[in-house]
């Protein structure tokens, strides 16, 4: 099983892949840890939200990378 993040714009379309990391992970936990360490970089690169996939199955998402407004 391979876990990957799909990078998306706010409207749900896929973000352009140019310059974005192409990472795959052996576990859900590894994928989530990586996102926790790299979400700001993705946001700065124009990614608004992400979805987590196990092979071709969406585990969850989309999940916004923008901080919650208070």
Could you please describe the fold and organization of this structure?
The protein is α+β, with helices and mostly antiparallel strands and 70 residues long. The protein has one domain (3-64). The chain is 24% helix and 29% strand. The chain has one helix and three strands; from the N terminus they run βαββ. The protein has one helix at residues 28-44; strands at 3-8, 49-54, 57-64. A three-stranded antiparallel beta sheet has the order 1-2-3, covered by helices on one side. A hairpin with a 2-residue loop joins β2 (49-54) and β3. The protein is globular. The N and C termini lie far apart (38 Å).
What is the terminal separation in angstroms? 38 Å
The largest sheet, given as strand count, sense and whether it forms a barrel, is: 3 strands, antiparallel
**Cα radius of gyration in angstroms:** 11 Å
Strand order of the largest sheet: 1-2-3
Show the helix and strand layout.
Elements: E1 3-8, H1 28-44, E2 49-54, E3 57-64
Antiparallel strand pairs: 1-2, 2-3
Keywords:
three-stranded antiparallel β-sheet; globular; 70 residues; 3 strands; 1 helix; alpha+beta
Task: Describe the structure in brief.
By secondary structure, the chain is of the alpha+beta class. It has one domain. It has one helix at residues 28-44; strands spanning 3-8, 49-54, 57-64.
């Amino acid at each position: 099983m391979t876990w990957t993040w799909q990078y998306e714009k706010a409207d749900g379309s896929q973000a352009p892949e140019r310059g974005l990391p192409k990472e795959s992970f052996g576990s859900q936990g590894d994928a989530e840890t990586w996102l926790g360490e790299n979400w700001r970089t993705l946001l700065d690169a124009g990614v608004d939200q992400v979805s987590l996939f196990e092979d071709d199955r969406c585990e969850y998402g989309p999940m916004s990378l923008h901080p919650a407004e208070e």
